[in-house]
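Q: what sequence does this backbone want?
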C-alpha cells in the first residue's frame, strides 16, 4: 500500500489532484468530511488545510465553529505526521492544547508545523498548530501532542 505522502505527491501533480486527495483523505477519517476541508500542502514538518466558512462549519454567531477549526488543525497535523513519521514508526494524537483568540469570520487556514528537533525527542512529539482567517489574524493556536513509537 502506498504511503499517504506518496499518494499526495502523485495526485497533487495532476489537475484537480489535491481535490481528489482531499476526498480520499476525508474518507479515511470520515469526521473530516463535515468540515469540507481543502488540502493546501503536505510535506515533512508541514501540513496545511482550509476550513471554509459555510453552513456546516458555522456556529450560532455565524463564524467557523471552534471545533471545526480544531478539526482542521488536526487534519493539518495528520498530513504533517504522515509525511514526517519514519516508515517503521506509527503516530497517535495524545492530546491537544489550544487557545481561541479571535472570531473566525472567514475561511480559516489551518497549519501544523514541526522541525527535526521536535521529532528527535520522541516518543512525545509536539506539533505547533495555528488557524488564521483571511485578514491574517490568528484565531486559534496551540499544540497537538503526538505519541510516536516503533511499529511492532
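A:
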Amino acid at each position: 500500500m502506498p504511503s499517504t505522502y506518496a499518494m499526495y505527491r502523485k495526485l497533487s501533480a495532476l489537475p484537480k489532484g489535491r481535490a481528489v486527495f482531499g476526498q480520499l483523505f476525508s474518507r479515511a477519517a470520515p469526521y473530516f468530511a463535515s468540515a469540507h476541508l481543502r488540502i493546501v500542502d503536505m510535506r515533512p514538518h508541514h501540513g496545511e488545510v482550509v476550513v471554509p466558512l459555510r453552513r456546516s462549519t458555522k456556529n450560532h454567531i455565524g463564524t467557523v465553529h471552534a471545533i471545526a477549526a480544531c478539526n482542521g488543525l488536526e487534519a493539518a497535523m495528520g498530513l504533517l505526521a504522515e509525511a514526517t513519521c519514519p516508515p517503521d514508526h506509527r503516530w497517535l494524537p495524545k492530546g491537544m492544547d489550544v487557545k481561541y483568540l479571535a472570531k473566525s469570520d472567514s475561511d480559516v487556514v489551518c497549519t501544523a508545523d514541526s522541525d527535526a528537533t521536535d521529532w528527535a525527542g520522541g516518543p512525545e512529539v509536539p506539533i505547533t498548530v495555528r488557524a488564521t482567517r483571511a485578514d491574517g489574524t490568528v484565531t486559534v493556536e496551540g499544540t497537538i501532542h503526538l505519541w510516536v513509537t516503533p511499529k511492532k
